[in-house]
Amino acid sequence: MSLEIDSATLDEKIDRSLDVLEETWGRFDNPIFTCSFGKDSNVVLDLLDRSTVDIKARTALGFCDHGNHFEDTLRVKEDLEDRYGVTFDTYRPDSSYEELVEEHGPRVNQRKPDLCCETLKSKPIERMVDGHDGWITGYRITEGQDDEGEESYDWRSNLDFFEEKEEITHINPIVHWTDQDVWEYHDRRELPYNEIYDQGFDCTGCKQCTLDGEVIFAVDSMEDVGQGEIDTDD
């Protein structure tokens, strides 16, 4: 990677991120930005706004409403849509969490995490990105690292700004940012964020997994989506 994570200043990282987006507008005919309205997505959305006078003219905007968002996530979504004058296209799963519980029993997110995550997140995201040639993400190399620097997602450790996948090219404008960079940027730009971060949580995903005491990652299904190994025939 041409810009080192530790040695670059935040201003240098911002400039590089904006360069990546400028390159994106020239390389891709039909990109999409998928936003979770977590801290990383918020940064990318603000960078998108800084990179163009009309976000919607440059990229499609997608949001997966899996039915298990924290209320504050939806507040942040509304605040940022108002701030930037955009509306995200919403994609929903074919089955709700409650329906999965009815069919597979309680705490299906713990007992069958891959099934739960594939149904509520992976499949809607597959539909969301289908037909697009570039997928703008908030992926970061250091996301998911513990205090010892160990990775929760091994596939993140070798990420670059552009990742050519079988189905689609990932565009990762803040791949070189650290957690500290993300929060400093929030402060600088006065970005809204989900207040659950202030309670010590590292992410704002599904309520069930987050509030169980630890975030349970459905490694197989979400890793397939993360690596671009997605079936878009459904």
Automatic annotation (TrEMBL):
The species this protein was found in: Halopiger aswanensis
GO cellular component: cytoplasm
Recorded superkingdom: Archaea
Family, as annotated: Belongs to the PAPS reductase family. CysH subfamily.
InterPro entries referenced in this protein's UniProt entry, alphabetically: PAPS_reduct_dom, Rossmann-like_a/b/a_fold
GO MF, one example: phosphoadenylyl-sulfate reductase (thioredoxin) activity
Ranges for domain Phosphoadenosine phosphosulphate reductase: 31-210
Gene Ontology BP terms: sulfate assimilation, phosphoadenylyl sulfate reduction by phosphoadenylyl-sulfate reductase (thioredoxin)
Name used for this protein in its record: Phosphoadenylylsulfate reductase (Thioredoxin)
Pathway the protein takes part in: Sulfur metabolism; hydrogen sulfide biosynthesis; sulfite from sulfate
Alphabetized Pfam families for the sequence: PAPS_reduct
SUPFAM superfamilies in UniProt: Adenine nucleotide alpha hydrolases-like
